[in-house]
What does this fold into?
Amino acid sequence: MSRRLRTYKDTRGEGELFRRRALAGFGLILLGLFALVGRYVFLQVLHHDEFATRSVNNSVKPRAIPPARGLIYDRNGVLLADNIPAFRLEVRPEQVQHMNQMLADLGQVIPLDQDDLDAFHKQLKQSRRFDSVPLKMRLTEDDIARFAVNRWRFPGVDVVPYLTRYYPLGPLFAHVVGYVSRIDADDLENLDQDRYKGTTHIGRTGLERSYEDMLHGTPGYELDEVNADGRVQRVLETHPPVPGKNLYLSIDARVQKAVEDAFESRPGSAVAIDPRNGQVLAMVSVPSFDSNLFVNGIGSADYKSLITSPDKPLINRALRAAFPPGSTVKPFMGLAGLEYGVRTPQDTVLSTGVFYIPGQSRGYRDDLRYGNGTVNLYKAIYASVNTYFYKLALDLGIDRISEFMGSYGFGHPSGVDLPGEVSGILPSREWKAKHSPKERNWYPGETVIAGIGQGYWSVTTMQLAHALATFAGRGVPYAPRVVMATADVGKSPAPLANSPTGPSLIKNMKDWEAVNEGMQLVIYSNDPQSTGFGTKLGEGFPYRIAGKSGTAERFSRTSNAYNENKNTAYLAARHRAWFEAFTPAEDPRIAVAVVLEAGAWGAKDAGPIARKILDTWLTTQGGAVPPHQPLQESGVAAASSAQAPPAPEDTPQTDMPAPDSSTAGDDAQ
It folds into this structure.
């Protein structure tokens, strides 16, 4: 039997252990108390201002205030682009639990079409949940009233006032001023986020795009006190935005309207430039469109109608439609011959109706079957004699032709302050080598037809107007400019400098005078062979006019037979009708280029449009509109119709071989 050991309780040791544990526990409690007091000091004393601000920020929300976009005026202060007050419906996604259901319910209160919903969903994907997203633009008063009654049903949805862009003259300046539209995902990747806070629109085309930096301005912001639902209770602080600059154009709205009316809805374009400073006085592209359609999102039906229209109204024909210039390049060719010393004004060429390159049997025709006889520079210009310029082109050579024409702006953009200008085509060895790798050789026949504005040639109306303005300004080149001044809000307009881009291109002013005289004879010559004979384009006008017509072929000849079909509709379907003019001839102040995409003859069809531009311009200078008699059906005066040969009217090249067989300009659109 084992023996149990008796144990005794150590009361003294347990008491000592308890005291040590109690002291340790008390120390931990005291340490925690000190830490808590220290934290209170840190929060309430040392960082009181910081955390007080954070607390206030829980109920204060910053809101960006977009700047008012700068306005656009014509040269006389006629408003072309305005900002008008409107209301839109916005949604804050973070406050909407069931978006699709909310949209369906909201559609019962305010009509939402599919275009509204598509634009909203697209922008919703690009925005943060706490950003307001526009749902419907330009609410009517009825829309606002119905929503006000039902507002409690739609948390996160609100009516917001804003300024929307409006173009009072609509289609008249659509291609010049352009339009703004909503900012999309591609824009957000490239924009300065700070500068565009709160902004919903950006310049998309025309001056709205090229002068976006000036027009936009700088955003401001305000601090709003909001309740638990995010509703603004009061505005605590406001920092106003800086509005964009206003633009003043060199274009006169009266001239612009007269030009558009003169086209009578026929597709084409016209540009007028002041040779003294490069200011664009008019720029019209017909047909046009209403730029207001695009501001807040164009409907699918309207957009489809525009892009499927056979007349392509969205294309700015003055900058983007390039066609063979035809006989309008002949004055420049004549000047090149004088400047290079290849010709004098008195040198003559015999025009027999057909020109042959030495050693070749292929003939290049004049417009008149039996030619124009002996012609010098003056008659070569006013009668538009092909043979003179065939031989001149051959004597100059394509290298000197391309060098000279390039100096006047052909073959590259003019530099006008508008986006989207195309380069056109200036015939040259380099151009052919680059674009025709299978056939790099340059042939004499290509030089010959380049001398009359056919073949590879392709120019825009702006390019031709720029080249003509440079010539009219005695060779001093200016880049064309549409905006002539800018102004901050409440301040006077400040002119924009536009210095010449170089010295005069003309070596001898007698050369300029000779070509100028030949162009005046186009308007005033009594020779029935003159392309302007019988059109009365200069009749009654107080200043001398210098001009040149051009009838550019759209198709190559397919046989050696002369085309005897003189039906106007038939010829209009085959020709581009050009006319260029400047006045006063001795001291030019306006240079004009006009093209009709379907015109039988340059002087007869495009000439009256140019004259209308000059008439209207004259009224803006304080003069009266001169009387202008209607054109005769024929280029031959009635009194001499029995004896005189038919007028050549610009020498269209129906019979000319073209390197690109059919349409040098048709695909430019």
